[in-house]
Amino acid sequence: MKKFNLNRIWQQLAIATNWPVLVSVLVLAAMGLISIAASDRASGHHDAYRQWIFLGVSLGCMLLFQAVNYQVIGRWGWGLYVISLLLIIYTVIGTKVHVPGVHSVNGAYAWIKFGSASIEPAEIMKLALVLVLGRYLRYRSNYRTFAGLAGPFALALVPLVLILKQPDLGMAMIFPPVLVTMLFVAGARVKHLVTIIIAAVFLMPLAWFSGSENIPVLKHGPVLVKKYQRERVYAWLDADNRNERQRKAYQTYRAMVAFASGSFAGKGFGNIPVGQTVPESQNDMIFALIGEQFGFFGAMVLLVSYMVLFAAGAEIAAATREPFGKLVAVGVVATMACQTFINLMVCTGLMPVTGITLPFVSYGGSSLVASFMEAGLLLNIGQNRPLVLARESFEFD
């Protein structure tokens, strides 16, 4: 067994393609800590202290996922997937009957509490799904047929449906884009993917009204979208009705006010008179705190950091010829980009309210650990790309 060599790890981290990833995630994490500390000053909470602990654990996880060859980590994928799935099922059971450790947080039964700590299984499932899809798609070609797409779609849809039952719509929204992106890169036929996307669009009204008393035919169907989630969407669509937005989309409304109040230069560190009125500002709406404190400049620093991170991840994926590594890198970038996009769209009022954290920035242990694990995988693939004496991955005649 090889000895744990810190000097070797440092040399690997110093690879040119890894620096953009490292710098970006550290800048984002620092902005998150600063904003959480500002929220603590206004609320009297001690979330920043806990976030420091979460950050220490997250950095350790990133180093672990960077140090162990990604091919070895890939062998853990199925086990991680099954464990995450069982934990999600456990939380869904908690929505029906009382089970130890599962309780409602803002209407969702998405966490399992262990004493003073808690875990969100769906955060781990994001990573597990990328690993499992990478293993499933790496050498197969049957997914180039329409029937062959059943396998990868089942792998994604099973946890997606269970997460909707928690209910956690924001987290569930990440899975379809990640699946389609990985299938596209793996060589699935575009016409098949487009057909499925079109079918999904036409089925959305059924999912929207399933279990609703408004349509008798569908009232006995499973409730996939809760009543309060529908109200949030209606409030978002009725943008001109200020009273309705404040009543049913209050969180986004206050976040937009806080963000806009920062103007160009911001109000300065810790100065969040509007931000302290935003519910869960240290979690889903932390971008509003960044905008209020640091204005347009701070928002641009955050956005550029994400752009650099995603571009570096895309470069790592493009330069990796080994199939599994390429797919995992693509999946990781798609996961982080999709989550970031949804959070920022919600915070700026361009999407209806849905709870989802901002990667590397928002308060929360599960989210931070999962994000740094994903960053560790990117670093790992960037430094361990084997020489493949074959044609490019996923080239088909």
**How large is the share of residues in beta strands?**
under 5%
Structural class: mainly alpha
**Which sequence of strands runs across the widest sheet?**
1-2
Number of E-state strands: 2
Shape: globular
What's the helix-strand series?
A: HHHHHEEHHHHHHHHHHH
Could you name the ranges where pLDDT drops below 50 across 5 or more consecutive residues?
none
Care to describe what's here?
- The chain has one domain (19-383).
- It is globular, with a radius of gyration of 21 Å.
- With 397 residues, the protein is mostly helical.
- Helices cover 64% and strands 2% of the residues.
- The two termini are 42 Å apart.
- The chain has helices at residues 6-13, 18-43, 47-67, 70-75, 77-94, 121-137, 150-164, 169-172, 175-186, 190-209, 227-237, 242-248, 250-261, 286-319, 323-347, 365-383, and strands spanning 112-114, 117-119.
- Strands 1-2 form a two-stranded antiparallel ribbon.
Secondary structure: elements and pairs:
Blueprint: H1 6-13, H2 18-43, H3 47-67, H4 70-75, H5 77-94, E1 112-114, E2 117-119, H6 121-137, H7 150-164, H8 169-172, H9 175-186, H10 190-209, H11 227-237, H12 242-248, H13 250-261, H14 286-319, H15 323-347, H16 365-383
Helix pairs in contact: 2-3, 2-14, 2-16, 3-16, 5-6, 6-7, 6-9, 6-15, 6-16, 7-9, 9-15, 11-12, 12-13, 13-14, 14-15, 15-16
Main attributes?
397 residues, mainly alpha
Quick overview of this protein structure:
The protein has 397 residues and is mainly α. The protein has helices spanning 6-13, 18-43, 47-67, 70-75, 77-94, 121-137, 150-164, 169-172, 175-186, 190-209, 227-237, 242-248, 250-261, 286-319, 323-347, 365-383; strands at residues 112-114, 117-119. Strands 1-2 form a two-stranded antiparallel sheet.
